[in-house]
Design brief:
This protein is an alpha+beta fold and 285 residues long. The protein folds into 2 domains: 9-148, 2-Layer Sandwich (Fructose-1,6-Bisphosphatase, Chain A, domain 1), CATH 3.30.540.10; 157-266, D-Maltodextrin-Binding Protein, domain 2, CATH 3.40.190. It is 32% helix and 24% strand. It has 7 helices and 15 strands. Helix 1 (9-30) runs antiparallel to helix 2 (50-66) and helix 5 (196-204) packs parallel to helix 6 (218-230). The N and C termini lie far apart (40 Å). The protein binds D-MYO-inositol-1-phosphate and calcium ion (2 copies). One calcium ion binds next to strand 5.
Length: 285
């Protein structure tokens, strides 16, 4: 097989950006005052609205119109196989709880994988009107201003503003709370914005110094992770493992090491069995 893609990567990024903008406009336009929850997933607070589904259908439809032979993995629609080297990774609404409540931190995240590696990505933080994008080896940009993004460097852990997030299941949250109790006195402060994709763009833009979280899935961090790396950040898991739903840490390389060494002894890749928690209403997942 040839190593040359059928189109330049920049064309795929342009397509992703156009689709992420269109989906964002549709979501803003169609969002009712209080969107209705139509399904819950891993726990009663892990919700899906009709517009999560509608946005993913729009995105899948647009990808298929232009690239009928590419594979697609989407949070709501699952995996559709393709016939070539390109796969699209889609989170139609990252930050659904914010979308539900009308908080201004939710995003449309689309990444383009080539031969199993993320090669381009876009995160449209719709309520803020900010579109972040990156192409592997070509830097990360806030497209809405044209600004090239660079993460903060030289920030010691004690001065770091650290973004994180929490899963939907009580057993996971109980451990996340223990970890947080250890981290919070040792950093400048914590932010929990509610969209992992947006958190990673905030690392890229120097709006926070670092991010860590257990639980986010590939569609949450595929695009945002590339944007952060192209802005100079390191992203990874514990003890040299790649970043994954087990744990994702992202920061400038020096701060990454410090945050890693703070987190590692806390064994943050574990969950409490749900049976050990009384008075919670979570389910499986
Ligand atoms: C969630 C958000 C949140 C993170 C969760 C994700 P969703 O995605 O990214 O910030 O803490 O782990 O599941 O459910 O809103 O698409
Ligand atoms: Ca998500
Ligand atoms: Ca989502």
């Amino acid at each position: 097989m040839s190593n040359v893609l059928d189109v330049p990567l920049s064309d795929l990024l342009d397509l992703a950006v156009g689709i992420a903008r269109e989906a964002g406009d549709m979501l803003l336009d169609k969002r009712p005052d209080r969107p209705e929850v139509i399904q819950t997933k891993s726990s009663p607070t892990d919700v899906v609205t009709a517009l999560d589904r509608a946005a993913e259908e729009l995105i899948r439809g647009r990808i298929r119109e232009s690239r009928p032979h590419d594979a697609i993995l989407g949070e709501e629609g699952g995996h559709s196989s393709g016939e070539n080297r390109v796969r699209w990774i889609v989170d139609p609404v990252d930050g659904t709880v914010n979308f539900l409540y009308g908080l201004p931190e939710w995003s449309v995240s689309i990444a383009v994988e080539v031969d199993g590696e993320i090669a381009a990505g876009v995160v449209n933080v719709v309520p803020r009107g900010e579109v972040f994008a990156a192409e592997r080896g070509a830097g990360a940009y806030l497209l809405t201003t044209g600004e090239r993004l660079r993460c903060n460097t030289g920030v010691p852990l004690a001065q770091a503003l650290v973004a994180t997030g929490f899963g939907y299941r009580p057993g996971r949250r109980a451990v996340q709370a223990q970890v947080l109790a250890h981290v919070l006195p040792r950093v400048r402060d914590i932010r929990r914005a509610g969209s992992a994709a947006s958190d990673l763009c905030s690392v890229a833009a120097g709006r926070v110094d670092a991010y860590y979280e257990r639980g986010p899935q590939y569609w949450d961090y595929a695009a945002g992770g590339l944007i952060a790396v192209e802005a100079g950040a390191r992203i990874g898991g514990l003890y040299g493992k790649p970043y994954s739903p087990e744990l994702t840490i992202c920061a400038a390389p020096d701060l990454f090491e410090e945050l890693h060494d703070l987190l590692a002894p806390l064994d943050p890749e574990r969950d409490l069995p749900e049976r050990d928690l009384s008075g919670t209403s979570g389910g499986e997942g």
